[in-house]
Design brief:
2 domains; 224 residues; mainly alpha
Amino acid sequence: MAKTRGVAAAGMTSATELGAARRRDLLEAAYSLIAEKGLEGLRTRDIAARAGVNISTLHYYFGTKDALLAAIVAHVTGKFVEAQRRPEGAGAAGPMDARATLRAHLEGAWRTFQDNPHLAAVLQELSARAQRDPAAQTALREVHEAWNLAVEQIVRHGVRGGQLRSDLDPRAAARVVTSFVIGAMTQLGVHAGGFDFHHVAGELDRWLAAAPSAAPAARPRRRA
């Protein structure tokens, strides 16, 4: 009996893994097609064909158009969000260096867009669609809120620890950081040589940083 249950469990795991892989293939196909044709030119039959399955398989995994769009948004933004998690080791042994964490966050954003050349264009397509599509709007809003909150927590920690400017509003500063990333990738997607991302990110880092402590005044020497 135990052996039978083990075989059944193995079969269930294999079926689950197969389903997850097929779902990823469909979403990757949608991602590639949006990069090539734009969101308005996206067709479910083209997605299925690109993934090597029939249209009924796509409908099995994504029953409605809204469900498919929400899954595409989650898949695409996941490419970016995953790389924006706290760098390994940050805060693990002692107080978190908030300024270093923010620098790593910006560097991670840069690497993500470099590793996924179509990401900026696809995100722009989804953002434009979200202006008039409630499903896309809800999905993107949730991603933005989570991202802003994560950066806000880093800023708040840095203000309390004296690493970042004491007059910062953490909520507003977080939105400056995330808006910088989005805006930079939008501009660089149109003109790759428009500016140096690292140089501008360095200016943002200096703007956020706490002023260095003034050196103590030298004591006057006593006359002999």
